[in-house]
């Protein structure tokens, strides 16, 4: 399945990349703004969130094509969050995926506006899709909740507030669940909505996504300790230098790896309850937590 998964991810990534560039390139806007948006969209990344959405939609019998707009929308939001996360007022990073961060190339003002533009265009992309109106309403509502104050933005402010502090495990999980997990959960739920999943299936998929999201962030924390710059695309140890609370810092590196395995097992338990052809989703979950470890 590894070879099949690699092929699937490579092909899906190419499709998403092409669609993202198409949506942005065909939009009317100032040249400088378009260049800044395309720079970060084209900066690489494995497109984990949109690929999870495509795979979930396909698990419920929907086509990839039906999910393309929503998949691009979630990647636009993810990219906007990275642009803003790298800003001097936030994490003040010089590198993202091995390239200079957006504000280092285009300046802070343009970087902020490029992020703003990606966020707002993501909702336009969904509204222009061929999905049913009820699906569009559901997806835009779920996406706003996942990206907004009760989701990613709320997690981001909690993360900033937690710097220079010794957080409890509960506080750290709140940050991870909201800052990273909510958008990942949305990606999975969106694929299921596009595939007309039942409520009980959506409930188990939400739990699958929540545990996978926590495992995903723990994996990032571990990579920040023992990854290398070429693989992770940024300087290792940046969390430590920014005085961020992390799982390895709170639980030790061994404890963090044990916690990751626990969340992974919980995620698969809920996926088993969905009763769909889940082999690809299972393989993606394994890939997500084993990145370069």
Q: Can you offer a commentary on this structure?
A:
With 293 residues, the protein is mainly alpha-helical. The chain has a single domain (2-289), classed as Farnesyl Diphosphate Synthase. Helix content is 74%, strand content 1%. The chain is built from 14 helices and two strands. The protein has helices spanning 2-25, 31-41, 48-59, 64-85, 102-106, 108-127, 133-147, 152-161, 169-194, 199-226, 229-232, 238-241, 247-272, 279-289, and strands at residues 95-96, 99-100. A hairpin with a 2-residue loop joins strand 1 (95-96) and strand 2. The model has no long low-confidence stretch (mean pLDDT 91).
**Cα distance spanning the termini:** 19 Å
Number of strands: 2
Radius of gyration: 18 Å
Can you count the helices? 14
CATH class: Mainly Alpha
Strand order of the biggest β-sheet: 1-2
Query: Domains counted in the coordinates: how many?
Result: 1
- The CATH architecture would be Orthogonal Bundle
Helix content percent band: over 70%
Low-confidence stretches: none
User: Structural class, judged by helices and strands?
Assistant: mainly alpha
Element-level helix/strand string? HHHHEEHHHHHHHHHH
Strand content: under 5%
Mean pLDDT over the full residue set: 91
CATH homologous superfamily assignment: Farnesyl Diphosphate Synthase
